[in-house]
Specification:
single chain, alpha+beta, Heat Shock Protein 90, 2 domains, 20% helix, elongated, Structural maintenance of chromosomes flexible hinge domain-containing protein 1, HATPase_C_sf, SMCHD1
């Protein structure tokens, strides 16, 4: 790598966790992307890109078709699809100490590309691992590894808390992806964790699939 013998450097994950002798076996696994930096908080001079490969979660087979939010006959599915799209924002802002801001924008100006639905919030943001987990079809938010909502084995929704104000809209980790491809052809998620200077971006499209 052209590193001088007297030069200090660190190796980190894309979540800026430094690789050490103690956590090497935990953090360094097949397919993981690493940064070689001068310091953990070093600014990146250019964007980095990695391809995410994953198999469909087993729930695709064992629960396929059971929880389709727009399957009921006689109902307009669009409101359900829009509700699913704000589920991540509800989850991300649920622990805000200040104002919770969630915006839904409908963009129809062809000069900026194809029409789009944009959901913008001021939540805690997602790491690259959390974005990866979101991409896995039918991977429930209650069982996602390394996610901030992974331990919900005994979860019971508090009765005084309206479902519209928490993150219970999507129970099975399927709604967000289905909503995207029910409404349009692709999804672009841009997120910056509150404690990081890095901005992570995930793109899913029917064309790529």
């Amino acid at each position: 790598f052209g590193i001088a013998t007297d030069e200090n450097f660190v190796i980190t994950t894309t979540n800026r966790k430094e690789i050490t002798e103690d956590n090497f076996s935990e953090l360094v696994q097949d397919g993981v992307t690493l940064y070689l930096l001068q310091s953990v908080d070093q600014m990146l001079l250019s964007a980095t890109k990695e391809r995410i490969d994953f198999l469909p979660h087993y729930d695709t087979l064992v629960k396929s078709g059971m929880y389709e939010y727009y399957a009921s006959e006689g109902q307009n599915p669009l409101p359900f699809a829009l509700a699913e799209l704000i589920d991540n924002s509800l989850s991300a802002t649920c622990q805000n100490t200040g104002i919770r801001s969630i915006q839904i924008k409908l963009l129809f100006d062809d000069s900026h590309g194809k029409p789009a639905v944009a959901v913008i919030d001021n939540g805690r943001g997602m790491t690259s691992k959390q974005l990866n987990n979101w991409a896995v079809y039918r991977l429930s938010k209650f069982t996602r590894q390394g996610d901030f909502e992974s331990d919900h084995s005994g979860y019971v929704r508090p009765l005084p808390v309206p479902r519209s104000l928490n993150s219970d809209i999507s129970y099975f980790g399927v709604g967000g992806k289905q909503a995207v491809f029910f409404v349009g052809q692709s999804a672009r998620m841009i997120s910056k964790p509150a404690d990081s200077q890095d901005v992570h971006e995930l793109v899913l499209s029917k064309e790529d699939f």
